[in-house]
Design a protein that fits this description.
13% helix; globular; 827 residues
Length: 827
């Protein structure tokens, strides 16, 4: 230990010997030396200062494992006759991220396209229609280069619309599901700065979209010289806010926000008629079309803007207009939401305003009442009558699913109690309701499954009712096995009509009929990649609809088993232990091991429930996955339990450090007792909240030889108004905030720590400054650390160059600090 560094509290002593390796695995280590010598440049650079760098690539087979195509996204057409399979480039080049970016009001946009910033959306690169009955496939000819977002089926399931991001703007396209042909409906003039840029008309004859105003001029000039100071002032009102990023900073930003986010609505027919703009241009942050097609519900952002909050919290009005843009009703005027109630609005003010999906034009919304519950109201067109009370809740309204004129299911939450209520209401008998069931959402138990939703003839989401009308279909998971059930509308009881078998993991995408006889599922097993299947429930037979091959067969034979163990206070834990293909602990001896974890918080042991997961999951690594290290001869304990549980009425985080240590001690003991790891060759790693855990474990234990922390937060005083599930602010629990801040104990960390962070991380709790200041603290107190900042990357890393370089850093770091290979990591 460095002489100037404070001793840690009592922890497990580290065994200083190196792990014993068999001849076979010593050969792997020898190969690592040769490979590293080939791709690690020359002599190392001293600890001081940034060194010249370039992107690096880890040794094979890691790059090859990452370039394999990933599982496509599947979206089922209304009616269930067609499935759209959407492919994407899982490793886009860094050039896709390098375009201009404007951070405004909590959004990051590309000013050249008026849409999401380059690289911030994983655009689709292929669309294939699959006929469910025959299995016939039709690949859509797409614009080149294809980068598509926001796919949506037409109400009748005959067409798929999507946005195509082009060099100078965004176009609205539509593809025919029968012919597979696609065509552009607009020039590159769609404004997708607020994301929800278009919707289908309920009759499927066309769409309504937000467009860049035709008369918009050039963007406002950004003055090269400041015109004055930036002034912010508080007037003594409590207004806490998370550490949001990409906020407005000055009047110029306000002008840019108005320029790029202002749009006008336009009707775009499918028959080739030119788009028809209507209504006033404005900051239209959201809109939806009434099921009858006659009215639009719009949310329009108003001044004054905030420099402390994103646009979602700005003043706004929610209005109803006709198809010509004429205002017919004002549903709500919302003030700036700084420090409002947990619902976001004051008592008596409408919130969660939307259309009733099974009526032509009826608004539904919730209002908080003084005693803490909420009332849900209805108001039908022409919106000039008195609102009708649908239901009064002693809980917080969450959402509502409509079924038929006499049935809707309301979901309501009791956050303090951890309870979710499912309430049946009869819209024909306002005020009457029945609680169908209650469940504790913190335990992880699904309480009988969640009601399934289908699309009706108007393209609106409604409950999937069974053919007899006495039940709705629900889906859930029990101990990692998915099921579909009938949820009785009188009793709330469930009766399963199908459940996944024991030898495969199967997830239902849709029930294809009202009798629950035919399902569409994704099916996979440990050895079989995910494929779509049509399942005959009665006959327990299925038909494969796709035939995707194993994208990384080299990974097929790795060892994998569930490792169960118990921590010192009796809490049962577990994780998945992975070992390289062909490895045998008795024959080969211990391996260097990486433990990759993420903490969870629970108010009490009962809330935590029983850890579960499907042993039949088809696992192939992607992105910056620690499992790729199996190809380098490492063992990996993935997802070991790291629960932090409240005791005797105390908040969970009041025992954060103590319980993290217990969790880690139990996990280390388990892998050592299994003969897979030696106590002196174990590393700890994690991302985000898991990275914070890594730093704390290095500060408070001697269990690990080194750590790897990606995009973490190490100083909780920089997130003073809460984080994760912690709702107390810093001034209410200062001791807990300081105890959870690894920055406080930087002088105790005597193990080497690799820190990685994206330079454009916009996650509210993990500003890049967190890693920069923590590195400075480690360096200043004599610690051994390496900070790698990945340009243009956010909270997670997506560009091909960034992902491969991060894996190069991690591989090299572990080879040096677990295997003792004396090779430089500095590029």
């Amino acid at each position: 230990m460095h002489a100037a560094r404070r001793a840690k509290p009592g922890t497990c002593a580290r065994n200083k010997h190196r792990p014993g390796l068999s001849r076979r695995f010593r050969a792997v280590a020898g190969l690592a030396v040769a490979l590293l010598a080939a791709w690690a440049p020359g002599a190392g650079v001293a600890d001081e200062g940034p060194a010249p760098s370039s992107y690096r690539v880890p040794p094979e087979p890691i790059p090859s494992l990452l370039t394999a195509p990933g599982k496509p996204t599947a979206i089922v057409a209304p009616g269930g006759k067609t499935v759209a399979l959407l492919g994407r480039n899982t490793l886009p080049p860094i050039a896709d991220f390098a375009g201009p970016v404007l951070g405004l009001a909590g959004h990051r946009i590309d000013p050249a396209t008026n849409g999401p910033a380059s690289g911030r959306v994983h655009g689709l690169t292929s669309v294939t229609f699959v006929d469910v009955a025959s299995g016939a496939k039709r690949r859509v000819e797409l614009p080149e280069p294809a980068r598509l977002i926001a796919p949506r089926w037409s109400p009748d399931g005959s067409r798929l619309a999507f946005l195509a991001i082009r060099e100078r703007g965004i176009e609205l396209w539509v593809a025919d599901a029968v012919t597979g042909t696609a065509r552009a409906l607009t020039a590159p003039v769609v404004n997708a700065a607020f994301r929800n840029a278009y919707e289908w008309l309920p009759d499927g004859s066309g769409l309504i979209a937000t467009l860049v105003p035709a008369d918009r001029g050039p963007p406002p000039d950004v003055p090269p010289v400041p015109t004055g100071p930036v002034v912010r002032e508080s007037f003594g009102r409590v207004a806490p806010a998370p550490t949001y990023q990409n906020l407005l900073r000055n009047r110029t930003d306000e002008a840019l926000f108005e320029h790029y986010f202002t749009s006008t609505l336009a009707e775009i027919p499918l028959d080739g008629t030119p788009p028809r703009a209507f209504g006033e241009a404005g900051l239209i942050s959201d809109f939806s079309i009434a099921p009858g097609g006659e009215y639009l519900l719009q949310t329009r952002v108003l001044r004054p803007y905030s420099w402390s909050l994103p646009a979602a919290f700005f003043p706004a009005e929610v209005i109803v207009t006709d198809r010509n843009g004429r205002r017919v009703h004002t549903a709500a005027r919302r003030p700036l939401q700084d420090g409002a109630s947990s619902t976001g609005v004051a008592a008596g003010e409408p919130r969660a305003i939307e259309w009733r999906s099974d009526a032509p034009a009826t608004l539904v919304w919730a209002e908080t009442v003084e005693h803490g519950g909420e009332r849900v109201y209805l108001l039908a067109a022409p919106f000039d009558g008195r609102p009708e009370l649908l239901v009064e809740l002693d809980a917080r309204f969450s959402d509502i699913a409509w079924g038929r004129p006499d049935l809707a299911l309301v979901t309501a939450m009791l956050p303090k109690d951890g309870m979710e209520l499912l309430v049946a209401v009869d819209p024909a008998k306002p005020g009457e309701s029945r609680v169908l069931r209650r469940r504790n959402f913190r335990t992880g138990h699904d309480g009988g499954g969640r009601p399934m939703i289908v699309t009706n003839a108007r393209g609106m989401p409604v409950l999937h009712l069974a053919h007899d009308g006495k039940a709705v279909f629900a889906q859930g998971s029990d101990a990692g096995r998915a099921y579909v059930a009938r949820l009785d509308l009188e009793t709330g009881d469930t009766q399963r009509v199908w459940e996944a078998g024991p030898s495969a993991r199967e997830e239902p995408l849709a029930v294809l009929d009202n009798g629950g006889r035919t399902l569409l599922t994704w099916r996979e097993s440990r050895s079989e990649p995910p494929n779509l299947h049509v399942v005959d429930v009665a006959g327990r037979a299925s038909r494969a609809l796709t035939s995707f091959a194993d994208p990384a067969p080299a990974f097929a034979h790795v060892g994998r088993r569930r490792l169960a163990y118990t921590r010192a206070d009796g809490v049962r834990l577990g994780g998945t232990l992975y070992t390289p293909a062909g490895y045998d602990a008795a024959r080969d001896g211990p391996l260097p091991l990486l433990m990759w974890a993420y903490p969870t918080e629970h108010r009490d042991a009962g809330e935590r429930g029983t850890p579960s997961g499907s042993a039949n999951r088809f696992v192939r690594p992607h992105g910056v996955s620690p499992l790729l290290l199996l190809a380098r001869g490492y063992a990996v304990l993935y997802g070991p339990g790291m629960p932090v549980i409240g005791k005797d009425g105390a908040a969970p985080n009041d025992g954060y450090v103590e319980q993290l240590v217990m969790n880690a001690e139990a996990a280390v003991r388990a892998v050592v007792d299994a003969g897979v790891a030696a106590p002196d060759a174990i590393a700890i790693g994690g991302h985000s909240y898991g990275a914070s855990m890594v730093a704390n474990l290095l500060a408070h234990t001697d269990l690990f030889r080194t750590g790897i922390a990606l995009s973490g937060a190490y100083n909780r005083t920089l997130t003073p108004f809460g984080f994760q599930t912690e709702r107390r602010n810093y001034w209410e629990a200062p001791d807990t905030y300081r105890a959870m801040s690894a920055f406080t104990y930087a002088d105790r960390i005597d193990e080497p720590l690799l820190l990685l962070h994206g330079s454009a991380d916009s996650n509210s709790g993990t500003l890049p400054m967190q890693s920069e200041r923590f590195y400075d603290a480690l360096k200043g107190t004599g610690g051994a650390a390496r900070l790698v900042v990945l340009p243009l990357e956010g909270h997670s890393y997506h560009a091909r160059e960034s992902v491969l370089h991060a894996l190069w850093e991690i591989t090299c770091w572990l080879d040096r600090h677990l295997r003792g290979l004396d090779l430089p990591c500095s590029p």
